[in-house]
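Re: beginner question about structure tokens

> Can someone show what the tokenized structure looks like for a real chain? I only ever see the sequence side.

Sure, here's an example I had lying around. Input first:
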Amino acid sequence: MKHSTWATISPTLTVLGIFLLFPVICGSGLASPQPSDVNVSMDYWAPYYQPALAIVPHGVSIHVVNPTSSPHSVTHDGCRIGGPCAFDTGGVQPGQEITIPSLPPGRYPYYCVLHPIMKGEIIVIPHHTSISQGAIHDHPSITDVKISQ
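And the corresponding structure tokens:
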């Protein structure tokens, strides 16, 4: 009976593969992974911001990029109605990218000052919280935005 070279090498590769993947599977134990930043892109057509609803864990920054040929803004509704103003990017020029730093947990509807038809929303959830789309409306930390001034 003839044995293939692969049959001889295969157990070695399996053990080597498990050894190499062990830190990835189990984690290094040095630090817990940080959540990735979230990207929002502006667009010419509705819903104008992609994604129109960004659900973000607390501690995560939001990167906004403008790939269009017109300037736009990302302005929290509170800035317009005289309430607490969580963020206002000012004019984001074509090809420019800006970052909205981490926000406290809460709901942040926003719009474009230059084109008020453009609207979006950022929902910041407490870190390590899992919330389904349907449960967002009932979660107290989501509906009560608290912004220190």
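Each token stands for a local structural state, so reading them left to right follows the chain. The CA atoms of residues 109 and 116 lie 12 Å apart.
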